[in-house]
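Amino Acid Chain and Its Fold in Token Form
===========================================
Purpose: to set a sequence beside its fold so the mapping can be learned.
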Amino acid sequence: MKIALVSPYDYPYPGGVTDHITYLDKYFRALGHDTRIIAASTTDEDVLNDHVIKVSGAVTPVPFSGSIARVTFSPQVYRRVKQILQREQFDVVHVHEPTAPLLCPIVLRHSKAINIGTFHAYRETNPVYDMANSLIKRGLGRLHGRIFVSEPVRDYITQYFPGDYVLIPNGVDYARFSAPDIRPIERFDDGRPNILFVGRLEKRKGFRHLIRAYPYIKHAVPDARLIVVGAFND
């Protein structure tokens, strides 16, 4: 099958949805499918993989759910999407975060393929969903299948957009993390207890709670060591 994987975010800027799409693309290709990743990107086209279709280089950072969503509001996206869909003739269009502006709703509007949507984000409430409920429902009505990655995401989404959803949690690349040539980092392999934090230093990730708890941990386990890993600006 020919499959489009649509991301509303700056690709391949580090992020959970980006990683999800990257590995989904990898495994779909391994199964013999012909895939394309459709996204805005601040990365030069000659650096991107040849199966990534860049719709725009204009990306705007927008605060969302305690994070920063790097999305495009470029007016050229509308025309680009129509051209891409007409040219590629996808069998399946898989849209990630179907309600996220601007790319995903436009793709859903013009897609004539089987449309699948995966919902990733969680919030307790969303005023935008209240204000534009009927409009968003119309767009989501073009989905033939709806996926949520966790129970909290389902509870969040279905309070605004009821329907039939399927739980498919985020996957883990076992081969990548169990390769025999991966050895412990020597300077941390000295018998001391290691606490590993992996992720962006955003409020919602809870790193501040770990920092506050760390003195108590050190008091109880003097040899404990904190290791922080992630993509940081500083």
Notes: The CA atoms of residues 127 and 133 lie 10 Å apart. Residues 16-30 form the longest helix (15 residues). Residues 2-167 form a domain with the Rossmann fold fold (CATH 3.40.50.2000).
